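Please go through the protein record below and see whether the fold suits the sequence. Record follows.
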Amino acid sequence: MGAADVIPGVSGGTIAFMTGIYEELITSIKSIDFSALKTLLKGEIASFWKQINGNFLAAVFSGVLLSIFTLARLMQYLLVYHPIPLWSFFMGLIAASAIFILREIDKWSLPHILSLVTGVAIAGMICLVSPSETTDAWWFIFVSGAIAICAMILPGISGSFMLLLMGKYAFMMNAIKEFNIPVMLVFIAGAVIGLISFSHFLSWLLKKHYKMTIALLAGFMIGSLIKVWPWKIPSDRFEGIDYPSLPSQFETLTNTSPQLLSAIIFTIIGLSIVFAIEFISKAMKK
């Protein structure tokens, strides 16, 4: 899950969904409520730990944090020196994840189709109009943490992709790389509050409108392919906004090699990884 959350491709929620721990994850997070806090304040630490399924949450989130701190420096390097292969890899991950999520809908209806189209339209619009840079004020970092962590537990939306949309992906990767403690603490505070509050709403949504929610999430992923398209050119009219282009157009306008073969190879690798994870998780269940 941590490895997935560092890269704007497969969401941590998708990994949890594939490996069969998703329902336990949501239930455990949801259990961190006022009742659990009262138990903790009474000094009944063992009861509190058992009530929130502490061993499970500690195992999951220690793994998440380990991967984030391990891979942040690598992602920072690749974004600067090998952007086209990296974005191609992200594109493969997202496309395969969307396919995986859509397979959950065995019988399509008009509401499901409308949810999918709505998700594609919203994500596409956000990708085309959102600037690549936003304020570095602490309140926005707090909000970014809350939104990113909510996306992390959704099967279909990558938390790192949401940071990418909000212009805070490279910023946070750099903060982790340089161990910027104040920025990290503000981000974590937003993440904790967002995670606990959002888990209740998500649990209700998936219970009452499971297939429509899944279709919407898959639509977000398909629409988000615009953002991770490897060949982007800066807008002449709006500073900080890049638009997708054909590889030939990219080469002409930027005088840079489109690295087409590398892009194809890394897209296939991204696709393969998701289906390999699915295959392994099914084998483990058997």
